[in-house]
Amino acid sequence: MSASLLRRGLELLEAPGQGKAPPGLQRERDGPRAAGAARRRKKAPQLDKNKATIKGRVVKSAIEEYHKRKAVNHLSTNLRYMLKGRCVANKAITEQVLAQNRGRKSKDLPPKKVAKKKPEGTVFTEEDFRKFEREYFGRP
């Protein structure tokens, strides 16, 4: 038990009429040497077992250690996992995620979609041109 716990226990068992010891008889614990003494007590050599001994140690196989630390290829398991679920995301959501992850540099922007131009056809037929020629130039 620590001294402080012992002191508290004695205070609880004291008779009610008796108080603490007079202030002159109490030891002062707040002095500068009290902290150093506490540190020294804390660092006091303990009777621990020497951890450099071999007794109780299990001999490990070097091959087992190698296999335990060897890198494992998870490609086949990952492929099975990825191909197992055939859930296709909504195209709008996919575009939104891609837009959020895109940078602001011009090299990060997607290429502009060029609208396909339809071949320009005329509204007028060949018959309409002949009719116009007759009316405008007076030819039959």
From TrEMBL:
A Pfam family of this chain: AROS
Keyword set, alphabetical order: Nucleus
GO cellular component, one term: nucleolus
Coiled-coil segments on the chain, per record: none
GO molecular function: enzyme binding
InterPro entries found in the cross-reference section: AROS
Subcellular location per the Swiss-Prot or TrEMBL entry: Nucleus, Nucleolus
Region of interest (Disordered), residue spans: 13-51, 99-121
Superkingdom to which the source organism belongs: Eukaryota
PANTHER family assigned: ACTIVE REGULATOR OF SIRT1 (PTHR31454)
Family classification: Belongs to the AROS family.
Name of the protein this chain belongs to: Active regulator of SIRT1
Organism listed in the record: Zapornia atra (Henderson crake)
